[in-house]
């Protein structure tokens, strides 16, 4: 009886409830998407419930490990992730089949395994590096901050380089967002951060200007193929590319716009949008439930991010805090990019909407992140005369 009460007190029921709400939204969206999508008649809804069940198993497994054990195992997770990335370079197409021009999936009996799952491994190792650095360095200076930045770079560059070889722009951007988020909370002085990210922003802006006005230079000196500019051009002017690169965006804008304030109702969508059960699930929600339904979905993500932030504050552990910062960066970027691409705010990339888009692979990675959060809450202890925890 005591163990049961102990479990009830320590289990994160608020996070569990949020995940149940995401499951409900996902089921509603996917069941509607099946009506108008090219996969009409398929049971994606039941498969999504199955994947949520597998995710619950992952969370249960995480409860057997304390956060300190995740910290100790972080190098092994990172090494495993690197082996998977290297394996993609040499794996035959029967094992790693290119999808949409990117060789970033392993074909398994249970379905494709995406590289997005490796993001949580990067979060764990970066959190360990930053927390360990601050434990050892007592006198903080520009030099020690620069050393920390080099450590972060040495760990981050290898996976980024391998992913860019696939090429997989979506996963690359997610990992850059994670690295940026952890750097911003790592305590590194702005005297270093501003010049570094200022230079990166300037470089990115210059490349974008060349794409718009002098693409021939990028083709000549960087070997960029002309078709690779299509995603940018179709983003800026989708209606001139509506029969090709801009088709998805035009249909997405039509679906969301036609939903107006309250939407057309459950399974009343009429706009045909390919892959609407995966990357464009938000378009389905916008059409059927309108501005109000879309606002509810966005509010759920705000509640999730708030809860993760509160977990970092309550547990008072540096490693936990950096892990939470990485998870927040990962989820925030996913949400901002996925919703942004459906409303022409950002270019289209193959990044799903967390917990809502159909797909066992991306859901497993997110559930692993949630499992680590459950572990933080489960093993957190408060002490009367100390702010520390074991």
Automatic annotation (TrEMBL):
Subcellular location: Membrane
Sorted UniProt keywords: Cell shape, Membrane, Transmembrane, Transmembrane helix
Membrane topology term: Multi-pass membrane protein
Entry-linked Pfam families: FTSW_RODA_SPOVE
CC annotations in GO: cell division site; plasma membrane
A GO term, aspect molecular function: lipid-linked peptidoglycan transporter activity
Segments crossing the lipid bilayer: 49-66, 73-91, 111-130, 142-163, 169-185, 192-213, 289-307, 319-336, 356-379
Protein name, per record: Cell cycle protein
Organism from which the protein derives: Bacillus coahuilensis p1.1.43
């Amino acid at each position: 009886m005591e163990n049961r009460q102990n479990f009830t007190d320590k289990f994160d029921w608020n996070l569990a409830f949020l995940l149940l709400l995401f499951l409900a939204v996902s089921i509603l969206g996917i069941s509607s998407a099946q009506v108008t999508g090219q996969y009409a008649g398929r049971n994606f809804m039941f498969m999504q419930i199955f994947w949520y069940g597998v995710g619950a198993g992952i969370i249960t497994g995480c409860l057997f490990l304390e956060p300190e054990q995740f910290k100790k195992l972080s190098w092994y997770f990172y090494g495993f992730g690197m082996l998977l990335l290297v394996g993609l370079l040499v794996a035959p197409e029967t094992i790693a089949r290119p999808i949409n021009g990117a060789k970033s999936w392993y074909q398994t009996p249970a379905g494709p395994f995406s590289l997005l799952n490796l993001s949580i491994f990067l979060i764990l190792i970066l959190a360990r590096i930053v927390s360990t650095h601050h434990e050892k360095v007592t006198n903080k200076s520009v030099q020690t901050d620069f050393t920390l930045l080099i450590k972060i770079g040495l760990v981050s560059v290898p996976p980024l380089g391998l992913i860019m070889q696939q090429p997989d722009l979506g996963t690359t951007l997610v990992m850059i967002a994670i690295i940026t988020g952890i750097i911003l909370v790592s305590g590194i002085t702005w005297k270093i951060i501003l010049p570094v990210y200022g230079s990166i922003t300037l470089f990115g802006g210059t490349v974008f200007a060349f794409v718009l006005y002098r693409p021939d230079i990028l083709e000549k000196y960087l070997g960029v193929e002309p078709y690779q500019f299509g995603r940018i051009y179709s983003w800026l002017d989708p209606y001139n590319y509506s029969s090709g690169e801009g088709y998805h965006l035009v249909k997405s804008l039509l679906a969301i716009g036609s939903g107006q304030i309250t939407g057309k109702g459950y399974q009343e969508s009429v706009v045909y949008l390919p892959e609407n059960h995966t990357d464009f699930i938000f378009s389905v929600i916008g059409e059927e439930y309108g501005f109000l339904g879309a606002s509810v979905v966005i509010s759920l993500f705000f509640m999730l991010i708030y809860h993760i932030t509160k977990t970092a504050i309550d547990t008072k552990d540096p490693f936990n805090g950096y892990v939470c910062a990485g998870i927040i960066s990962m989820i925030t970027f996913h949400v901002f990019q996925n919703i942004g691409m459906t409303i022409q705010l950002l270019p289209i990339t193959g990044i799903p909407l967390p917990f809502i888009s159909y797909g066992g692979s991306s859901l497993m990675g997110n559930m692993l992140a949630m499992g680590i959060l459950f572990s933080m809450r489960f093993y957190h202890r408060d002490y009367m005369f100390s702010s520390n925890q074991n």
